[in-house]
Amino acid sequence: MRIVERLALLLGAARAVRARPEQPAGEDADPRRRALPRDRAAELAVAVLLVAGGLLAAAFGVLVVAHPQTQLLGGVLAAGLACLGAALALASKRVVVQEVDVEERHPPPAEEDERLTAQLRAGTEGISRRRVLLGAAGVAGCGLAAAIALPATGLGPALGHAPNGTPWRRGKRLVDARTNEPISADALEIGSFQSAMPEGATTEELGAPVVVVRVDPQRLQLPADRRDWAPEGFLAYSQICTHAACAVTLFRYPVYEDTSKGPALVCPCHYSTFDVLRAADPIFGPAVRPLAQLPLALADDRTLVANGPLSGPVGPSYWGVEH
Amino acid sequence: MADDPVRFVDERLGAGSFARRALRYVFPEHWSFLLGEVALYAFAFLVLSGTYLALFFSPDVSSRTTYAGPFDELTGFAVTPAYDSALHISSSVPAGLMVRQAHHWAALVFVVAMVAHLARTFFTGAFRKPREVIWTLGVLLLGIGVFEGFAGYSLPDDLLSGMGLAIAYGVALSLPFLGGSIGSVLWDGQYPGSGAIESRLYILHVFIVPAIMATLIALHLALVARHHHTQYAGPGRSERNTVGAPMWPGYALRSLGLMLLVFAVLVALGGLVQINPIWQWGAYEINRSTNGAQPDWYLGWLIGGLRIMPAVDVRVWGRTLIPNPFWAGALFPTVVFGYLLAHPWLDRVLARDRTEHHLLDRPRDHPWRTAFGAAFLTWVGSIFFAGSSDRLFYQFEIDYEAQVRVYRVLVFVLPIVVFLATKAVCDELRRTGAAPLRGGPPTAVRRREDGSFEALRE
């Protein structure tokens, strides 16, 4: 109870009650009052409270990310909001002009407007530390913004912590994406196309789906260090387009090679076109990075297996990704 | 109360003076002023139909169930509850398919009406002082409306939903500096994420965005009423008055009639014209896509930009800094909406015109503005048409790569041609005072003695 009384005292409420001037009786008395507090100490206290509140709110934002301990979070944010609340209450009682005004229930229109405008303009009269208060209010605003914005980063993991791997390892068997059956080299002719997955993986992983195509091994133009990645002309590339994450599901394979464009994988979203003979080099459309290549090998039973991880990052580019 | 309802309401609600003025508010009449009303009523229909759909829809994409509904071709497939419930709405909920299709149609009509309303406002100069803020609110509503539509058709988790979200992920990742982290945070991990993006889009789509839009619409309309409607010049009309039909009784009944007609068209479309048959697209997984897929029309300009953008990245020392989707997916819409937001203030400076305007221009009255607006529409519109190049390839076998190479030139040449042509037409119309759309000056026809006709100019 004593705390409440002191708080009330601090806010000047008690004083206001006690100091109320004697009211002349009768309806026609004019209750209007106007006084300028001119309280420089209170202005400073408001500024200090605003800055403290802003810093505490910002601290809450930092704690959410760095040390999210429930009691600490609640305590710090509550203290910050309490400082800001106290700052506004104190400003209301000790910094801005203290007024009692009268408003008619049905105000006369035009001339009333000018009086209101003048009164509004005079609302900050008598404040001497304007810049300090404005700066402190800015700190408080930034702190509150940080208290909201920083926790928003917790909606998901940051890039470095996101699962960014690929389930492909040396010896991992390729399975048909529809039937989950192993893929036999003898089932695919030259010119065929097949969606595949690593055995046991799900489509929840961006690095899982690959396309398998078979071309004439004589025509391959893979870089020197990938010469043995395509046994018997079998090639596997990540199925996720490096432009905007769509699935690469079109395979252009020319019937008349002399007159047509060469074999290529095409993404149906924006027609990024990748030259399968030259390590999925982008040859048309908006994609800039090649599809990551999966080195293949043939197991003893002539099913396709991975002979290592994918050659690079999968999916669309972002700031800092390896080209 | 029966004796004097106006007085009854006045004394109880204290709304007398406001209500009296509102009910006698004068609406200048012109068909082009109805475009905004059509948008308003489409929004109302979206809220109503969307509320019904939300009673049956589940946004969950983090688990799989086996489909066992009446669409035979999907029987036995592993589907998410989101797709399953959207299929259920389409097959088994009373009026479900009609409402779902009408909701989708209403979204298309909503954005069409907003764009047409924007164009009308642009070409008649209705955005000028004191209505700059009304224009700004309208542009924001258009942008938010496009996002709201995208969020909506991303929800059913059919193949097209997934393809759209994949592209959105690619664009989010392309943002400078923070793109990778923004994508990761929004999707809760690397694409396709944990399913968080769908539940986030859901609460945005059904609550947060509609609430924001309703607020902006209320402000937009309050400011329109505050300044009163604009009007075209005519007998008795000045900068200081508005001439037209009062709200009560004539205009209110007419406008509510328009509302019901809009609803009628939307319901008719929903019942009779198939849209987004999600049971035909099938369920989305990250390794599925289809050729010839198109988004809702209001995203066509972005898909067009993404398609015709040449393969350009900003790269330093073998690392990508600004990936390709940034140009068409982020920079292009920023330029378009940035310009739209800045337009009233640019017009004010360029026309050296700081006065208030309540009488509308005819498009010809400001040849530069009209020509520039037409060129701007042509620029965005030709990029929009470039987005359909896969359909032309897919259905008519017109070479895709050739189309894209032509579009890359056309989107810059056409706006210049349109600018010059529009400017010339405006100047000519101003010079001659002709009114070709109104059929020219009145003409009388007289029958000659021999039975033939001759025209008499009056």
Outline the structure in words.
The complex is a heterodimer of chains A (323) and B (458). Chain A is of the alpha+beta class. Chain A is built from 6 helices and 13 strands. Chain A has helices at residues 2-10, 13-18, 40-66, 70-95, 110-121, 130-152; strands spanning 33-35, 98-100, 174-176, 193-198, 210-214, 234-238, 250-252, 264-266, 273-275, 281-284, 293-294, 296-298, 304-306. In chain A, strands 3-4-5-6-11 form a 5-stranded antiparallel sheet, with no helix packed on it. In chain A, strand 8 (264-266) and strand 9 form a beta hairpin. Chain B is built from 16 helices and 10 strands. Chain B has 458 residues and is mainly α. The chains are: A alpha+beta (323), B mainly alpha (458).
Specify the structural class of chain B: mainly alpha
For the residues shown, what is the average pLDDT of chain A? 87
H/E series of chain A: HHEHHEHHEEEEEEEEEEE
Helix proportion of chain A: 25-40%
Report Rg of chain A.
Answer: 36 Å
